[in-house]
Design brief:
The chain has 125 residues and is α+β, with helices and mostly antiparallel strands. Helix content is 26%, strand content 26%. The protein contains two helices and six strands, in the order αβββββαβ. It has a six-stranded mixed sheet with strand order 5-4-3-2-1-6. The radius of gyration is 13 Å and the shape is globular.
C-alpha cells in the first residue's frame, strides 16, 4: 500500500476509535499527526509520524499502557510505537484496546475539560 494511502487509512482508523479527538499537525524530524483530547500536545494519546519510507503508530505514554501481546516497540522513557507496513498492523482488536487505554490514561492526566473537540490544528510554521 502506498505510504500516503496507508497514512490516510491509519488516520481514519484512529478517528473511528476516537471520533471526537483533535488532530494536531506538527513537524520536527518527521511530519506528525498527533491525536489529542484537547488542543494541547500534552493531552495527546497517540501519533502518526510519517517518514520518507515508513510510518509508525506511536503512543505518547506507551510505557504506561498494558501491552499483554508485546506489540509496542522502543527504548525511550515514555514513547512506544508499532511499525506500520499495512492495515493488518493496526486494524485489529488489540490495537483498538491500546488506543482506548491510551485515551483513558490521557484523560486521567488532563487538568481541565477540552475547549476544542474534533478539530484539526496546525502547529507547522
Amino acid at each position: 500500500m502506498e505510504l500516503v494511502k496507508l497514512f490516510a487509512d491509519l488516520r481514519d482508523y484512529i478517528f473511528e476509535v476516537a471520533p471526537t479527538c483533535n488532530e494536531i499537525l506538527y513537524h520536527t524530524h518527521a511530519l506528525t499527526s498527533v491525536f489529542s483530547l484537547s488542543d494541547k500536545l500534552s493531552d495527546a494519546f497517540c501519533m502518526i509520524p510519517i517518514y520518507t519510507s515508513h510510518l509508525n503508530l506511536g503512543f505518547n505514554q506507551g510505557t504506561c499502557l498494558p501491552d499483554p501481546k508485546n506489540l509496542l516497540q522502543g527504548t525511550g522513557k515514555l514513547i512506544r510505537h508499532i511499525p506500520v507496513r499495512g492495515p493488518d498492523d493496526y486494524r485489529k482488536p488489540e490495537i483498538e484496546s491500546l488506543i482506548l487505554s491510551a485515551i483513558n490514561h490521557s484523560q486521567d492526566g488532563m487538568k481541565k475539560d477540552p475547549s476544542v473537540v474534533g478539530a484539526t490544528i496546525s502547529k507547522i510554521k
